Here is the input.
Amino acid sequence: QVQLVESGGGLVQTGGSLRLSCAASGRRFNTYTMGWFRQPPGKEREFVAAISWGGGSTTYVDSVKGRFTVSRDNDKNMVYLQMSTLKPEDTAVYYCAADSRVWGDVQDLARGASVPGSWGQGTQVTVSS
Here is the structure.
């Protein structure tokens, strides 16, 4: 499996932008579908976005479509989440995660048919109104 460290969270005003980064270490990073999840205050953790092992396929939860973009750089072992037009309801701790299976499908990670095998420590995003 891989070890994951997120960065890039912070405080931003409504309508602002942030880019989260996730640095991965370990072997075979380019064989894992990667996901972003978030946990709003007082709520359960939820899926946000996923990108396939090769980067050719992505999927998003409906609430962030058109505002968030997930990407990866397999040469640098990095995953990114570009967040734009942020809303107060985007406030949460954001987690980077690696699928527990190699060559996994983004839809399986999104639906919970596959679960993450590795998690980062999380980074706080706060959107002020």
